[in-house]
Amino acid sequence: MKLITAIIKPFKMDDVREALSEIGVAGVTATEVKGFGRQKGHTELYRGAEYVVDFLPKVKLEIAVADEVLEKAIDAIIKAANTGKIGDGKIFVTSLEQVIRIRTGETGEDAI
Description:
Elements: E1 2-8, H1 13-22, E2 29-35, E3 42-46, E4 49-53, E5 56-65, H2 70-81, E6 89-95
Antiparallel strand pairs: 1-5, 1-6, 2-5, 3-4
């Protein structure tokens, strides 16, 4: 089992969710986050004063998947989140040792 953590642009969240549900991924956790990478930030004007916005709004998606679904899920995220512009985001994959569904007590891939 793997945990996919994807940092994407906020307006791409619905596209990614749809792409994942099309391949059978049922559960996604989304968190609104702020950060920067190569995109850096930008300058804005507020009440006549100029200031730099270092941290840009992003969405962090966390998806637990079985090993067999991993590559399809990564491909779906890449295709749905890609705009071709800087700041499209990153995908991180980590191993999951154990998953437990609290309601039923199911463990492992059955709990995903």
